[in-house]
Amino acid sequence: MSSEQYHTQKEADEIVLKGVAASPGIAIGTAVTLKKDGIVVEERKAEPVHDLERLQKSIDRSIYELEKIYRTAVDKLGQDKAAIFEAQLLMVSDPIFFSGVKTRIEAEKKNVEFIVSDEFSKQVRQLRKSDNELFRQRAYEIEDVKNRILRNLTEAHLKSKFEGKPIVVTSDLTPADAVLLSRNEVLGYVSDFGGARSHASILSRSLGIPAVVGLKDATKHVHDGMKVILDGYRGVVVFNPTEESVRNYTEKKEWCEQLDSELLSEASEAARTTDGRRVLVEANVELLEELPLLKPHGADGIGLFRTEPLIIDAESIPDEEMQFETFRKAVVEATPNPVVFRTFDIGGDKLFVGDHDEPNPFLGWRGIRMMLDRPDMLKEQFRAILRASVFGKCRIMYPMVASDEEVVRANALLEEAKASLSSAGVAFDRDIEVGVMIEIPSAALMSKEIARHVKFLSIGTNDLTQYLLAVDRTNELVANVFDEFHPSVIRTVKLIIDSGHGAGIRVAMCGEMAGNPLATVMLLGLGLDEFSAVSSMLPVLKKIIRGTNYKSARRFARQILKLDSADDIKRLLIGYLKTHFERIYHTTISEEYVE
Amino acid sequence: MNYSIWIMMLEQEVVVKNRLGLHTRPAASLVKLAARFKSEFYLERDGYRVNGKSIIGVMTLAAEEGARILLICDGEDEKEALAALVDFFDRGFDEL
């Protein structure tokens, strides 16, 4: 999604900014700004008595703040996730560290900001010397504490209590902010940095607070008390709106809320077309916290359970026991519906393990390639999934497969894992289904051959688009060339679906396209069997599917396949959604598609 | 007054046993445990020594699984302190 911003001057001083829709909903209210400019530390002479007193006040204030954050985190997120804030609490009150700081203030007669910053930097440098990437990354925890102490030295306390119901505008929303501020009746979050997948955005969604992030310089355009409209469906923020804008958004807010409650009340109904074709609508899951959303959103199971967040959470490769515990929870929650566990997809833009650098990570050691080079790690993961399979229905999926030979090798390792469990007398589902993610062009072209070795295919549109068009979508210079509606992508999707059906197996899609309402009718018409998307989109997908006739969807898909430009395809898709599902069009289609 | 504190000092080498190493959470537990004793407590790894009552110091050890650490306790309750700390390492910081 583009985070390009533009300004339109409808009337004298209304400012419209476009960012990333991070948490859905519309909010209309007044701004409260949370200024967090970088603190510039100067070195100067200072009176020790005075600065020692300032240091103590800052420490006390920081302890007070962190205690509050810790208590709220325990309350809302549980003891486990709150532990990080407890450690920060110990850091701001570290007696040894601060006695060193105090000694230097007395001896050098320099300002406390300089000494504090210098002492923290030494620790950070020491930590960064480590050979271990995961320990080096811990340095940011120390940086966070340093920034808190420095900020409290300037006595520029971040506000955490507000009058009324504000929309909070800040440069960077941290997870701690999202948690702490939610104790107020905050209507929405607006921030300069961040993406839809940042931890704070995920927290905003689970807290039910609308948010638009990645606006780049929203904080420059706003002051406390300014009227703000936030559209978390579209990723749009309007500062100082005209009366007309307020009227329009108030109206939109009303019918959006009505649509939302309508969608949720129908979510448990099956996704069956008007002429009786039943497809499955499943959830992509990243965090265990998302599990409680499955039932209310009407998920027919989990179509993609990402396992690599476990590594990020545990800061290392989690062992079989830890993986099993996590998988079991997901399976129990989803039962009687299935859970598709994707084996570790490490590399590319996702996290490196250890110190490892490649000139072309997207074309490098990632996904199943890495796992086949580490067979013990893969077998351990297989065992964890197999053990979880007695608690419900599990499936296994391999990511980043380029050829059928990799599937054969992974399947052989799976058999070894099964054999080791059997000989240990451990029960598991012997008929566990295996599938492959099709996201590399070679795999798409060979999908007929690959289909012979598995029970299902699942199309990953993000990587597929990137590899088909040879565009690194994280590279801003070429990001505009990335287009999942390019005819080559649509035709490849059709090829994969036909290959799967030719082999008599199901074809799913778990890439972003599966959750894009613009694509739903087309994908249905191409014959897709299973849609897997972020759970909040499932009620929308189901409503579209239930309101569509399969035969006309097939005709529509054939029409799309004849087009030879992405723009023509998008125009047709937008027109269709606008005509047939107007309310959905207005709540879900991001601004980049709106003419 | 126990004069032995001036001449005595107990030390023992331990190995980090848990998979994630001495990361933030066990570092927090370790300092909390050390704070229960009057003795001074240091950890040393390859000649780099940190005060065991400082969580920031302990974090900078970056002690991963398999790291060998020398624990040093010095003070009136050094025996009890060292025993408790060695035990905490042996239990893999309760993460085994």
Notes on the protein architecture:
Chain A is of the alpha/beta class and 595 residues long. Chain A folds into 3 domains: 15-36 and 162-260, Glucose Oxidase, domain 1; 48-153, Orthogonal Bundle (Enzyme I, Chain A, domain 2), CATH 1.10.274.10; 267-593, Phosphoenolpyruvate-binding domains (TIM Barrel). Helix content of chain A is 48%, strand content 13%. Chain A is built from 23 helices and 16 strands. Chain A has helices at 48-77, 79-92, 95-108, 112-128, 133-137, 139-153, 175-181, 199-207, 243-266, 309-314, 320-334, 367-373, 375-388, 404-423, 441-445, 447-451, 461-469, 487-502, 520-526, 538-546, 550-562, 566-580, 582-588, and strands at 15-18, 20-23, 26-34, 167-170, 188-191, 211-213, 227-231, 236-239, 280-285, 302-306, 338-342, 393-398, 433-438, 456-459, 506-509, 530-534. In chain A, strand 4 (167-170), helix 7 (175-181) and strand 5 form a beta-alpha-beta unit. The radius of gyration of chain A is 26 Å and the shape is globular. The two termini of chain A are 16 Å apart. Chain B is 35% helix and 24% strand. The longest helix of chain B has 13 residues, at 78-90. Chain B has helices at 4-7, 24-34, 55-60, 78-90, and strands at residues 10-15, 40-45, 48-51, 68-74. In chain B, strand 2 (40-45) and strand 3 form a beta hairpin. Chain B has a single domain, classed as Histidine-containing Protein, Chain: A, CATH 3.30.1340.10. Chain B has 4 helices and 4 strands; from the N terminus they run H-E-H-E-E-H-E-H. Chain A binds chain B through residues 83-84, 86-87, 90-91, 94-97, 123, 126-127, 129-130, 132, 134-136, 138, 141-142, 314-319, and chain B through 19-21, 23-25, 27-28, 31-32, 51, 53-57, 59-60, 62, 64.
Secondary-structure class of chain A:
alpha/beta
Which class do the helix and strand fractions of chain B yield? alpha+beta
What's the CATH topology name of chain B? Histidine-containing Protein, Chain: A
**Biggest β-sheet strands, sense, barrel of chain B:** 4 strands, antiparallel
Identify the most extensive interface between protein chains: A-B, 28 and 20 residues
Our count of domains of chain B comes out at 1
Total DSSP E strands of chain B? 4
Cross-sheet strand order for the largest sheet of chain A: 1-8-7-3-4-5-6-2
Shape of chain B: globular
Backbone CA Rg of chain A: 26 Å
Shape of chain A: globular
- Supply the number of helical segments of chain B: 4
According to CATH, what is the class of chain B?
A: Alpha Beta
The level of helicity of chain A is: 40-55%
Calculate the terminal CA-CA distance of chain A, rounded to whole Å.
16 Å
Please report the distance between the alpha carbons of the first and last residues of chain B: 41 Å
Total helices of chain A: the number is: 23
Q: Would you give the CATH topology of the largest domain in chain A?
A: TIM Barrel
* Whole-number mean pLDDT of chain A: 88
Taking the sheet with the most strands of chain A, its summary is:
8 strands, mixed
Total domains of chain A: 3
